[in-house]
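Hello,

Our lab assistant flagged a job as stuck in the queue for most of the afternoon. It eventually completed. Since we weren't sure the result was trustworthy after the delay, we are filing this so someone can double-check. Below is the sequence as submitted and the structure that was eventually returned. Let us know if re-running is recommended.
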Amino acid sequence: MYLSHFGLSALPFTLTPDPGFCYHLPHQQDAINMLMLGLRMGEGFMKITGEIGSGKTFISCYVSALLKEKYHVIYIANPHLNRIELLHEMADALDIPDHHVMEGRPLLNRIQEKVVATHLAGKKVVIMVDEAQAVPVMTLEALRMLTNFETKKRKLIQVILFGQPELNQLLSIKSMRPLRQRILFSYHLKPLTQKETYAYIRHRIYVARKKRGEVFDEKALRKIYLASRGFPRLINIIAHKSLLSAFGLRANQVGVYHVRRAISDTDGLQARWFPFSLPLLSQFRSKKFSEAALREAREAL
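-- returned structure --
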């Protein structure tokens, strides 16, 4: 791997959210602040939307870490649960014994009892739903009914919906009006700007390197921004593959050529950016093309 080659102590561009590499981009921080305010106010529903790779998963993980001392966080990763499956998922997360043999009102009563006991023990319950645009309407309605658990002063269960923009379309249908009216706070995540993309990449490199120095040159940074359109997940994929490419060619700095190779190796980007991809360059080498011909092929990219 390229770690020692670039003097890195950890992989800086993994897809798994790592709070150690957190860079507080303005729009992500605004979304986090909004969620924390909504939770403190005891609101029943909040909503975060954004395109694929815009940072929703990072925000959910980061907020979960902030809440772990005062909240019991229930993370629903599978959006395709029906109403009964949702209740069993909650019962399991709340450590309710023998819940698998219950259903209907008995199961709901046990959940309510456990939520009240959690509240009396000094913790609040928050449900985070990932890919909420794929949640069945009846399951969303069940979530709304769960937020009816309340004391005289506050909701006992709060819900945060994380979803792609299609979530707004789902909530716009007539039957979703009661739930839609309970969403007091919502935020849409925008892509990073060019300046933010540069700062994001440099920050993650610095955290993994602990010293100054440009690992990506200016043209490489610009190419990553243009190809990723500012979406953090794509930035991470392209930057990681660019480091691999530079390491493989024993380059001390990532240049635009290495980024082009990375883009060519990334599904969904090849056709938009290149007339042909890296396997063709490999064929050039296998046929022992001259260095001049190989340079021409590189320039064509």
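-- support follow-up --
The delay was a queue issue, not a problem with the job. The result is valid. The chain has two domains: 26-189, 192-300. The longest strand covers residues 157-163.
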